[in-house]
Amino acid sequence: MILTELTISQIGEGLKKKDFSVQEICQSFLKKIKEKNKEIFAFLKVTEEEVLLKAKKADGLISKNKEVPLLAGVPLAVKDNMQVQGIQCTAGSKILENYIAPYDATVVKRIKEAGGVILGKTNLDEFAMGSSTENSAFGPTRNPHDTSRVPGGSSGGSAAAVAAGFCPYAFGSDTGGSIRLPSSFCGVVGLKPTYGAVSRYGLIAFASSLDQIGPITRSVEDCRIVFNAIKGKDEMDSTSVEYPKSGNQKLEIKNLKIGIPKEYFVKGIDPEVEKAIKSAIKKYEELGAKMIEVSLPHTDYALAAYYIISPSEASANLARYDGIKYGFSKDGKELIDVYLKTRGEGFGAEVRRRIMIGTYALSSGYYEAYYLRAQKVRTQVIRDFEKVFQKVDAIFCPVSPILPFKIGEKIDDPLSMYLVDVYTVSVNLVGLPALSLPVGSVRGLPVGLQIIGKPFEEEKILQIGEAFEKTWKI
Amino acid sequence: MLNKEEVKHIAKLARLGLSEKEIEKYQKELSSILDYIEKLKEVDVSSVEPTSHPLKVENVMRLDEERVKAGSVNPENLAEMAPDKKEGYVKVKQILNQ
After folding, report:
1. How do residues B46-78 score in pLDDT, each as one tens digit?
2. Judged by CB atoms within 8 Å, which residues 53-82 of B form the interface with A?
3. For residue A400, how many other CB atoms are within 10 A of its CB?
């Protein structure tokens, strides 16, 4: 048994049966991180001393209690845009390089209460803006399947950490695909929950009407375990909602109607990715699911709307980094000089680019043409999905039109990087849940199937994912 | 295509200090992104309401009382985080010319 390859449920089982201790589990992950993090650079910070202390405590608790909670003693990693009290929280930015989180994010608080042991903080595109994790101020993360390639972004550190055997699961955040894309590129399972299902309190805001936190794991079952531990209303986030109670109905794949959007299989998709996705769709057909061609006519416009709405919200959210209250600061003669120098030097190229796009779209004279129009297109995208969901239970499509690309390949052409998000941004604009499920590979590079569900139907898409996992043992 | 002056104006609104070279770089990049976004104009939105948020909740109210448990966050620690401070206060540069 290789401890660093186990899932959450396998670790839980092993701890219960006393096959190994929390300390042994944590030691083996720490050892693996020590050996390989230099190459992969998934972790920005490993809190080794605290891990060992917490592990010892957890072993004590587990030996005393008969009932061991599912996540007790199971280690995890947290994307470095979520606050863990007393530990650095950089958001991958120079402007927060020295920032120490003064409180726990709600997801962190909930996972600590469930007994989770946090191994450290993972790398990301600065302020979660990017699709490759190359935009981190501290250097790029590498894809464990091929270290010359990107792990996807922005939760590239979290996905690479799970794929490399540094931890059994990690938290990611998803504003336009940031959980699903790296999960697809790294061959792991990622869930972007329904907007409002998980509290955003303590998550460093990027675009508040789109951001959601979710799990990145090795199995669909693990995704469910973590999602159930973090979901639900939180009084500290007024956009979080009471999660509707759902029964434990077992889903029958043969009764399912799945929508295949024709706009997602057009020019621009790598034929080999298309082949892998179509072969996965065929496997579901073998299980009896009925595939129906559907249309999401505003797909192309959704990406353009996203690249107005998300930078607009970001330009407002990032106004707080002024060199006055905390973080990096550059001295200047007058206050305006402090602002200009701090923000000019503290933010990286992509963050500055998006702040400027957002500022432009919101500025007087351009607001109607850009921001307001994008919000109206957002309504049209929502209508597209509402219409389709009257006919189907879920939608299948690729997570990404292309395979993991080479480090450096797209970094100098921002627009080509944005186009990678074409299949993922609509889900955020509408607020839907979506799963990224590894369903195959092309020349050793993983391909993820995206399973999109109706609002608050996480359980359904998880069961759909599980059916594949169980039948084809991925 | 944005001109240089427009880029300078946006950068100033956004409080980003940029060098001449950076302004030129962003002039090209922002223009190509905005060209792409032009396609939004093809969508007929004449009778469509804008969406600002996926949830239909508004005006979530609460009592005006302390929510953070006493002792869980130390206000002195928060003040300590300021790059420039004096006797527990945050120091800010002058904003008016004499």
Report:
1. 999 999 999 887 788 888 887 777 667 777 778
2. 53-55, 57, 60, 62, 67-68, 72-74, 77-78, 81-82
3. 27
